[in-house]
Amino acid sequence: MSINQLITCNREGYRESRVKAASRVKKITTTRCRARMYVMFNKQKDHWMVSKLELKHTHPCSAKQSVHYHEYRELTMHAKCVIEKNDEVDIQPNKTYLTLANEVGGSSNLGYSEKDVRNYITNNLRCADENTDVKEMLSYFLRMKEINPNFFYAVDVDAANKFRSVPWVDARCRASYKYYRDVVSFYITYSRNKYVCVCVSSERFLILTLS
């Protein structure tokens, strides 16, 4: 028993679809290209075999564009150094990407995308310290306290000095409480992410606590 598969060029043409061409997010100019490959998988022999191959395209092909496929995208050592230095001084990822693109004459000459830059920051820089998010939260609270002394927050830690919960409230909410009192709501999204936290919100304060 075998399984047949047909692999075609992305400019072959659209098959029947309920999505109108004008509303498609990714639009590709079709040329009815006949380049294709027929392959069969033989379950008994456990291998694939090419049964028919047509390599001639009806449109120009550029080997340079292959770098934009996920399998070939890779940050260079220079790019990583630039990303790390820019991140240290709080330069936004999109501006870092534009800087790298300008160095080589445009983003089409880069072997990676802006998403790759953002992923590198998230996976390699933001997560280098497991307490980074807590530190950034406390840094934000300190800045808010400097802006308005009526901003309130309090951090609760356990016996091992690990974060447990933190209530905070800004000046506007404290003033609103005099008129509206408390309306409590729960944001269950936070209990499903990596922090396993529950967020409780009211007109008077917010509490983020480990469940």
Describe this structure in words.
Helix 1 (77-88) packs antiparallel against helix 2, helix 1 packs across helix 3 (114-126) and helix 2 (93-103) packs across helix 3 (114-126). Strands 4, 5, 6, 7, 8 and 9 form a six-stranded antiparallel beta sheet that branches. A three-stranded antiparallel beta sheet has the order 1-2-3, with no helix packed on it. The chain contains five helices and nine strands, in the order E-E-E-H-H-H-H-E-E-E-H-E-E-E. With 211 residues, the chain is of the alpha+beta class. Strand 8 (197-201) and strand 9 (206-210) form a beta hairpin. The longest helix is centred in the middle third of the chain and has 16 residues, at 132-147.
Short account of what is shown:
By secondary structure, this protein is of the alpha+beta class.
